[in-house]
Amino acid sequence: MTAIQIRGLRKSYNEVAAVGGVDLDVRQGEVFALLGPNGAGKTTTVEILEGHRHRDAGDVSVLGEDPGTAGRAWRARIGIVLQTANDAAELTVRESVRHYAGYYPSPAPVDEVIEQVGLTEKAGTRVKALSGGQRRRLDVALGVIGRPELVFLDEPTTGFDPEARRQFWDLVRSLAAGGTTILLTTHYLDEAEALADRVAVIAGGRIVAEGTPATLGGRSTAKATVSWLDESGPRSVLTDTPTALIAELSQGRELAELTVTRPSLEDTYLELIGRPRDLA
Ligand SMILES: Nc1ncnc2c1ncn2[C@@H]1O[C@H](COP(=O)(O)OP(=O)(O)OP(=O)(O)O)[C@@H](O)[C@H]1O
After folding, report:
1. Is residue 235 over pLDDT 90?
2. Atom of ligand 1 lying closest to residue 43 CA
3. Inter-CA distances, 81 with 14, 154, 195, 262, 278, Å
4. What residues pair up with 198 in beta bridges, in sequence order?
5. Residue-range domain boundaries for the chain
6. CB-ligand 1 contact for 186 (6 Å cutoff)
7. What is the pTM for the complete model shown?
8. For position 252, what pLDDT does the model report?
9. Which of 177-181, 216-220, 271-275 has the highest average model confidence (pLDDT)?
10. Whole-number percent of the chain with pLDDT over 90
11. Does the CB atom of residue 39 touch ligand 1 within 6 A?
12. 34, 38, 55: which to mutate for ligand 1, most atoms within 8 A of CB?
């Protein structure tokens, strides 16, 4: 089953193309990450999927409906984690989550969701007294309280400390394990690698690559770099067969400072966005 289907999506702002013909499928139950530099068109695409922005052209289906015309019942099936709304600062965390629960036909238990986002100790604290990272976790709680089938997470861990990021990743994994489809935008390549079943890279309003984090842009078949130190200094060779090369070089002796590396997701990503026109 397809949760999101996009065909030929276009959107311009005053003649400037923000999204210039995007095709994309997100399967039900998968965690899909949309990557791309600032201004690439991620937010525009996501806002169209959320029904918050009109498109100029193309077909879009989200949970079987066109977000441009879908009604309240559809809206209750999706969860949107906004980049920090500043309302309800006087309410406590629990009051705030309870308030949002009232908008949905079958919300999750309030305290369970507060626990899931790691805010149990802050449940009685006023929203205005939360730290930035805690506030962000509350945003997530508000986005998932309605037990959505599909959750949009827009740069969810910006400003999190490393421990909070790991906890947040666990939360995303537990949502995914429960069958929730997740569309994530992020600038953190390690986050995409840790969470996403598939990723797409968008640059200049077009998809320039799509695949699993392991195979994106031919990463899994890329040559390996074998590096070591010999009498003449540091050496490095790019090869398809690192094992054979090391066997030949070492002849049974130790090679100093030996490493074998393949392109990281970040290396591949940077290469992809550096020459999007070649690949489009
Ligand atoms: N309301 C708007 N009016 C005019 N231009 C806009 C508007 N919103 C976005 N744009 C332009 O559309 C392009 C795509 O913007 P978008 O916000 O979709 O990018 P993004 O990939 O989400 O970037 P970021 O990583 O910075 O959030 C940019 O060139 C941006 O300046």
Report:
1. yes
2. 22
3. 28, 7, 17, 35, 34
4. 32
5. 29-36+72-217, 223-261
6. no
7. 0.86
8. 78
9. 177-181
10. 65
11. yes
12. 38
Residue 150, both tokens:
């599909």
Sign for the CA dihedral angle at 29, 31, 35, 41 comes to: positive
User: Which architecture, in CATH terms, is 29-36+72-217?
Assistant: 3-Layer(aba) Sandwich (3.40)
Per-residue pLDDT of 130-156, as tens digits, reads 988 888 889 889 999 999 999 999 888
For ligand 1, say whether the CB of 43 is within 6 Å of any of its atoms.
yes
Question: Which ligand 1 atom sits closest to the C-alpha of 40?
Answer: 21
Cβ of 79 below 6 Å from ligand 1: no
The reply to whether ligand 1 has any atom less than 6 angstroms from the CB of 13 is: yes
Give the C-alpha separation, 156 to 84, whole Å. 10
* 143, 150 Cβ separation under 8 angstroms: no
**Could you tell me if the ipTM is greater than 0.90?**
yes
